[in-house]
Amino acid sequence: MANPSRRDRAKKIAIIAMMSATLEGAKLALSFIPNVEIVTLLCALYGYVFSWSGIIAAYLFVAIESLIWGFNTWVITYLIYWPLVTFCFMLLGKYDIKNRLVITLTASVLTVFFGVLSSLIDTGLLSGFYENFFKRFSIIYVRGVVFNLIQTICNFALFLGLFRPLEKKINEICPDKFKSKKIKARPLIR
Is 186 within the bounds of a domain? Predict the structure, then answer.
């Protein structure tokens, strides 16, 4: 009979693999609709519920994407953005923040940040950090504003309607030993 801790490690690896696979599958399933995506929602859920395991899954997702699509500036954006989303929601999960508005606004701000981050990286890596950097950045950013707006509206609606029910369902079916440990808030006044 296998050691329970060894079995738990194997289960945790399997959960991380499943998270990575669902990230990739969900991205591919919606890839025919420009800038409508569910990866942000899944990364947020995985960070919120599974903590560091969710961040590992986000990095594995980026590795899988790179193997499928090759390497370009978007890989750097992904290496920063998806783990960042997961980490931000890991913090919300650790402090047991359940307010739907806080969760939705956090996701919306992060989605807007994605447009800024990808434009900064594309401007710096494709055209260099020379004169007129911010002029070139603003041209690249404005060129993608419609796509970023669609993505932000989509994520706003997804988080508003699906985050809490999906988080509850994951918590319902997954054993506690694989989930993030909550931090008890201390009262401000003693």
Answer: no
* Residues in contact with 170: Cβ distance below 8 Å, sequence separation at least 6, in sequence order: 45, 49
Averaged over 97-105, what is the pLDDT? Answer: 96
Residue 166 lies in a domain: yes
d(CA 111, CA 144): 13
**Domains contained in the chain, number:** 1
pLDDT in tens, 57-91: 999 999 999 999 999 999 999 999 999 999 999 99
Structural domain span for residue 80: 7-178
Give the residue among 21, 33, 19, 22 at the shortest CA–CA distance from 151: 33
Look-up: residue for tokens 């919300």? 92
The amino acid at residue 41 is L
**How much is the pTM?**
0.89
Q: Name the residue type at position 141.
A: Y
- Compute φ and ψ for 189, nearest 5 degrees: -115, 130
Which CATH number covers residue 51? Answer: 1.10.1760
Q: Measured between alpha carbons, how far is 99 from 123 in angstroms, rounded to an integer?
A: 36
**Looking at the domain assignment, is residue 189 inside a domain?**
no
Going by the DSSP 8-state scheme, the letter that residue 57 receives in this structure is: H
State CA 164 to chain mean position distance. Answer: 16
Assess if residue 135 is contained within a domain: yes
